[in-house]
Amino acid sequence: MMLRYAGLCLAALCLCAADEPSPPPPETLAPYIAEGAFDPGDFAWMKGRFADADEPTKADVRAIDQWLVQCIESAKVGVRQELAARGYRDAKLETTLVGPLVCRQAFMRPNVDATDTYAVFAQEAAAAVPVAEAYLFAVRVAQEAGGPRGPGLAEQLLARPLAEQVVRTAVSWGEGMAAGAPELTPIAREIVRSRLMGEIAALDTANALWLKDIVAREGWPEVSAVGEKAADEAWLLVQHADHDPVFQLDALLLMEPLVAQREVSPRNFAYLYDRVMLKLAGKQRYATQFTCIDGKWGPQPIEDEAAVDRLRREAQMETLAENVARMDASYGRC
User: Fold this and answer.
1) Which helix (H) or strand (E) holds 265?
2) Cβ within 8 Å of residue 99, ≥6 positions away
3) How far, in Å, are 22, 125, 331 from residue 175 at the CA level?
4) What does the pLDDT look like over 97-145, one tens digit per residue?
5) Which of 127, 176, 260, 264 is the most buried (most CB within 10 A)?
C-alpha cells in the first residue's frame, strides 16, 4: 500500500522542523546548560524530588516539570502542522519526545522512587557519575579512532553510527549485551542509564541533521551507490531520529519505491514503517517495535495480528516469536 503524500516535493527536505518558540529554562537549570545541550552534572537540580526537600526546592522542581511539558508540547504543534501538510492530520505523537535537545535531555532524569532522601541519592550519584563519564569518554575516543576511512559517502555512513551504537549497548547496563558491565547498585544504574540516554539524544540529533543534509542534496543513499552495509547504516540513523518524525516520514516515502528496485532493504523499510506509523496512527504493521509488558518484551499495537508473520516473511524477517526471543537475549529483562 503506497503511503500518502500531500503533493510536496521530497527532494526539498526541510532542514529544520518548524515549532513554536520554546520557553526559557528555569534558572535552576542554568548551570547545567551550555550550547543548547543539557549536562545533568551532579544531579543537584533533582533535590526537590525527595521527601526531605524544603518547599522552595520542591517549587524549583515543579518549575522544571512545567518547563519540560511546555517545551515538548509547543514543539509538537509545529511537528503536527508539518505532518498535516503531508496528509497526516491526526498524528498521535503521544509518547514522542520532540523539541530542542536541551528539553529532551532534561526529560531523561533517573527514577528516584527507590530512595527516600536526597542524601542517599547524592551518595549514589557521586559514585555513578564518574562511571558514566568514563564510559562516554571512551566512546568519544573510539569514535575518533574509528572515523571515516575515506572521503566518500559510503565511508562516512559506515563510521557515523559507531558512537550511538556503543552508548545504546550500555543502556542495558549489567544485562543483555551489557551483561559484563561493572556491577552497580539499582540507583546507580538508573543514574548511569539516564546520563547515557541524554548522550544518545545528542548523538541522534547530530546524526539526523547530518543525514538530512545529505538526503536533501543527493537523495536517499541507494545500495548501488554506497553498498549494502552503508545503506543499512543510513537506515539506522533515520530509524533513531525519533525526535524528528517529519524527517522519518520523508525518508520512508523516499525509500518506498526503492524497495522494489532492490536499492533499499525490505527489512529496513519494514522497521522504519512501523517506527513512523506508531507515531502517526498508533499501530504498526510488521511488529518490529517493542515495549515492556508485565516485565517482558512484547510488540506495540499491531494493525493485523493474523497477518504479521506473513508480512514479516515478505520483508525477509524472522517470525515474531523468534524476534521476541532475540529481544530477551539481547536486552535482558525490561
Assistant:
1) none
2) 19, 22, 71, 72, 74, 75, 76, 243
3) 37, 20, 6
4) 999 999 999 999 998 875 679 999 999 999 999 999 999 999 999 999 9
5) 264
